[in-house]
Amino acid sequence: WVDHYGEYEVANRRTGERAEVSFTQCGWFSRGWHEVSATISDARGKAVYKVEGRWNEQLTYYKVRDGPSSAKVIWTKDTTPASGPWGVAFKGFSRHGQEVNELTELRQHTLPASDSRWRPDCRALGRLNYRKAGRAKHTLEERQREERRMREARNDPWVPRHFALVPSASPGVVDDWLFTNKYWEEREARLASADVSDPVTPTVSDFSGLSKAGTTYEAEE
User: Fold this and answer.
1) What φ, ψ does residue 207 adopt, rounded to 5°?
2) pTM for the complete prediction?
3) I need a surface site. Which of 100, 111, 203, 210 has the fewest CB within 10 A?
4) Which of 9, 3, 117, 92 is nearest to 55 (CA)?
């Protein structure tokens, strides 16, 4: 049983646009469970878009000036049952869940070593080897605890690979985690070394273009 709840903010430090996201805490009789909403504002702080729905079913969005009646669906959960071992290992598992957990041939060339899809317990679970999955999970967690103890003993804090801690641009917030783009650079290098192309994945050059183009909204009255 999982209850994702709380509020957080996603900010574009380059353009000043922000999204305030709120996950509703589950109440009595499952009231509000899985509900999520977001308000997307421009650089002036004016609300432009609203996103609403359930993160495990469907999300819709609409322009604030047009109201909820103009809402359009932007994502719907794929309810097609998972196939093969995944359909047997996880009762009620959808095709979407299978796709984001499967270690396909392409992903073997693109995923970083830290991606959870490489975890031996997940791989064993996907092969229906529950006993091996349990042992692998225990071993991994013990290694994580041991590494944490060793780091604390030598005063060596963990430094994230793909995010950098920078002074916050938000009032009342001490720090912000800024994406470094190293993930995409390393991903491109892995694809190049494996001589594999992935037309779906954005490249570093795509992100560089965004920094110049910025974002344009329609004129608001």
Assistant:
1) -70, -35
2) 0.58
3) 100
4) 3
